[in-house]
Automatic annotation (TrEMBL):
Top-rank taxon, per record: Eukaryota
Keyword Phosphoprotein: yes
Gene Ontology CC entries for this record: cytosol; nuclear envelope
Organism of this sequence: Turnix velox (Little buttonquail)
Keyword Kinase: no
Protein's GO biological process: protein import into nucleus
Record's subcellular location: Cytoplasm; Nucleus
Annotated protein name in UniProt: Importin-11
Quaternary structure annotation from Swiss-Prot or TrEMBL: Interacts with UBE2E3 and RPL12.
InterPro entries linked: ARM-like (IPR011989), ARM-type_fold (IPR016024), TPR_IPO7/11-like (IPR058669)
Keyword terms of this UniProt record: Acetylation, Cytoplasm, Nucleus, Phosphoprotein, Protein transport, Repeat, Transport
Domain (Importin-7/11-like TPR repeats) ranges: 379-730
Similarity annotation: Belongs to the importin beta family.
Amino acid sequence: FLHAVFERLKQFLECSRSIRAENVCRDRLEKTIILFTKVLLDFLDQHPFSFTSLIQRSLEFAVSYVFTEAGEGIVFERFIVQCMNLIKMIVKNYAYKPSKNIEDSSPETLEAHKIKTAFFTYPTLMEICKRLVTHYFLLTEEELTMWEEDPEGFTVEETGGDSWKYSLRPCTEVLFIDVFHEYNQTLTPVLLEMVRGLQGSTNVEDTSAILIKDAVYNAIGLAAYELFDSVDFDQWFKNHLLAELQVSHNRYKPIRRRVIWLIGQWISVKFKSGLRPMLYEAIRNLLQDQDLVVSISKLLHLFYENMYPILYLYVESMFTLLFQLLQEVTQCDTKMHVLHVLSCVIERVNMQIRPYVGCLIQYLPLLWKQSEEHNMLRCAILTTLIHLVQGLGADSKNLYPFLLPVIQLSTDVSQPPHVYLLEDGLELWLVTLENSPYLTPELLSIFQNMSALLELSSENLKNCFKIINAYIFLSSSEFLQMYAADLCRSFCELLEDITTEGQVQVLKVVENVLKVNPIFGPQMFQSLLPLILKGILDGERYPVVMSTYLGIMGRVLLQNASFFSLFLSQMSRELSQELDQILSNLIEMWVDRMDNITQPERRKLSALALLSLLPSLNSVIQDKFCGIISISVEGLHDVMTEDPETGAYKDCMLISHFEEPIATEDEEPPTEQDKRKKMLALEDPVHTVSLQQFAYEKLKAQQELLGEQGFQALMETVDTEIVAQLQEFLQGF
């Protein structure tokens, strides 16, 4: 049956020669031809080995009609696309590619490969390559007219608009890439010979020659990775391409655009840093040509993504020109392209952008208003705002009259646009908080959106927790006074139905509250603490969750001992257990699961918290004394460093004064939140209390309480090796 398909297709194609294009029969005939070719493609896709006997016939048929005179006057675009797909699927088919070790290949694979090799001879490959480049790659009259009438629209469509992706051009380019990759050793000399014949500027009156050069340059760009060792692109750029960019005649526009695209293709393959200043100068001169906006934008984006130092020399002129373009262009997609490049520039130079952004800051509210029906453009505006806020730092507060309503709208799940804007809106909300010097009433009121966001339990939940933490670090008292009850309620619901990672995120918020507000924090989240204590006593099986549970309990025990006692009394009544029994089980589980805690800060916190139970006459605490000392010695091993000169030990986690965070050249500058965290560390026992001294003072107090003999008896319950290590750490006290 399938062999007969080719005969039927030939008959149909010959028949179409005598039927005019506008005739309804022609349309039906073309649909029938496409249906037959689809049968071949589907069979090849589903049964490649059964198709082996048809490889030769298929290639002869497709190549004959698409790449020789046989198809002239009868082929049509959809048929050409189908034939090219047929060739491509045979060339790329993994079933037809032998293993590196031939002996590992199946006979069917070797047979198919033999047929392919016999067909794709040098003359055949050369004809396919030349025909693709000099016939199918040529810009058509229709495309040139469209570009002349609507340069923005043409560039957007040509680089991926909906109608473009169903046309012939992308199909020809994909086929060229696949054939060139498969037979690059044969085709590289063919393509290089075509390039050599085109060196130097082309006569602007010779449209045919300009279109051929555009097509050949397109091929060189598509094959950039394959030509890495065969083309000295740096020399070509310096000696030829740079001059082509400087030809200003209007008819040379296709070549200028193609050269920009070509450089973009090669820039990540082979392009010396020393040539970048020349390229920047050339681009700067071309930026005023709206016909080239998208092409140049893409090239600049590639440069800025790689953080080339040369950017800093041109940031003012480039930013000014890009901003002018942003105002002048009318297509939504073009504005998005320019915004993306502006965002990239701002992101790369960060604070150094501040002198130049005034005009953009004034323009963005207008652009936001104009883009009410264009959510993707609004996403691009949000991205730009994210980088602007990061670049402006604390000065971003001057943007609040525009910025905060944008965040409000983007993160309000009752508003339809949130479907498009939420992810970027949350990111903008977060960076705004991180860079805010203080909490404003308007910034506080936006948090009303959070309750509904937490109910979504979506992939954006992680950013929601980061936002909550940012509010806590910014102004915990004002924030918690207004929202603690709602948060606690939301957290209780979340913890019942959330992943382990989600549980940890919730618990970290509670932990941060206790860090910032150790006195009132436990009361605000009191309804969560029973769940945490029960989790510890029940031996929570996930180490990362247990570690966070113990971190929270450690904060309460160390920094609010009176609340901890009341809490244990409450749990004694709730669990119908003796208070001492609960305390005994808690300490025992803490000691047993200490290895679950991997963060040095939490390990030191655990040691400080358990030591804070001393001095005590309580029989439970004395019974668990050995475990408390073991945890303390583990903590000392974690935090104590030996001075190489004096041999004395010191606690490496101690911070005695505020140091302005300094960013290295490769790091982003510190945010206002980074500074707040540094200040908070100055009040955190983990960073202000020496574990060495704390252990000494607590043991000394226990000794004084029990007397020498009683204390010695207590110490004898501890392993002698641990006692020896403890004594070494406490030398000098």
